[in-house]
Amino acid sequence: MAVEGPSDRAVLVTLCRRLGHAAKAGFADGKDDLFAKFHKILRVLEVDFDPTHFLVVPDLHPEMDCAREAERWRNAIGQRFPRARLCLSIWELEAWLLADPRAVAAAFRLREFHHANPDQVGAQKPSEILEDAYRR
User: Fold this and answer.
1) β-pairing, 26-27 with 89-90?
2) How many CA atoms lie within 13 A of 65 on its CB side?
């Protein structure tokens, strides 16, 4: 997998392993950097690990024209690394973590943690919510 950053890598590799799939991921320095070099990240993984599947996983923020952005990524993947598939994380990948409030509470040693809708857009970003919980 080629992902935006180290937290994305940690989450996705952990999810894959828990589902019984061996996974490796390389990360970029944000969305723009990922767009510029996902194919290089995947080529390194291809040589080093000989994977059977390739994913490019960017976040897709709500202020974007989602259809146009998805098409832009698909076109770039088709040109630079056609064997890869696109997996868009709508809003931010961190929203996936917020879906399990017990795990967030346990990870940050909080008595409790609650977030009504991790996919809600227009409010505080999921990554900011996790950062606030971490600081408590």
Assistant:
1) unpaired
2) 4
Instruction: Give tens-digit pLDDT for 67-93.
Output: 898 999 999 999 999 999 999 877 666
Per-residue pLDDT tens over the stretch 41-58 = 999 999 999 999 999 999
The DSSP element (H or E) to which 39 belongs, if any, is helix 31-49
**CA angle, corner 125, sides to 129 and 130, nearest 5?**
20
For residues 24 and 60, is the Cβ–Cβ distance under 8 A?
no
Dist. CA 128–CA 58, nearest whole Å: 18
Per the structure block, which two tokens stand in for 111? 């008595």
Measured CA to CA, the distance from residue 36 to residue 25 in angstroms comes to 16
β-strands 54-57, 84-86 pairing = parallel
